[in-house]
Design brief:
The protein has about 130 residues and is mainly α. It is about 40% helix and about 10% strand.
Length: about 130
């Protein structure tokens, strides 16, 4: 698996494991990276403050199902590691896609986009 595939899978897991607006998880992901953070949350070995904001028993199968569903619907599961994620997006007016976790009030997890959708087509984006 490539590192971008690993990061995409990890972020799919994290979107199910915690609310996307969880600033503690965002800081942890920025600190250790999405793959390591996802494995620590999955194995319940992340710091206690991180685990306190996550759902117990979340598994990787839901992450895989989300990625499969996106593919089946012709959507892309865009993550902060993707070049296109760093663009200002009308889909998420609060965002200014920069470094993950750089701003504890702005939590960049994922952005779903239909293939070929213009960036201004906000009704086709889900954050």
């Amino acid at each position: 698996m490539s590192s971008s595939t690993d990061a995409r899978r990890a972020r799919a897991f994290l979107q199910h494991a915690a609310e996307p607006t969880n600033p503690i998880l965002a800081r942890y992901v920025a600190e250790v990276g999405p793959v390591e953070a996802a494995h620590h949350v999955s194995e319940r070995t992340a710091p206690a403050d991180v685990l306190a904001g996550t759902r117990l028993g979340e598994n990787w199968m839901r992450a895989e199902a989300s990625l499969r569903t996106a593919t089946q619907l012709g959507a892309r599961f865009v993550i902060p590691e993707d070049d296109e994620f760093r663009l200002q997006s009308p889909c998420c007016p609060r965002s200014s896609y920069g470094d993950v976790g750089a701003d504890a009030e702005r939590v960049d997890v994922v952005l779903d986009r239909r293939d070929g959708a213009p960036r201004s087509d906000s009704d086709r984006c889900v954050a």
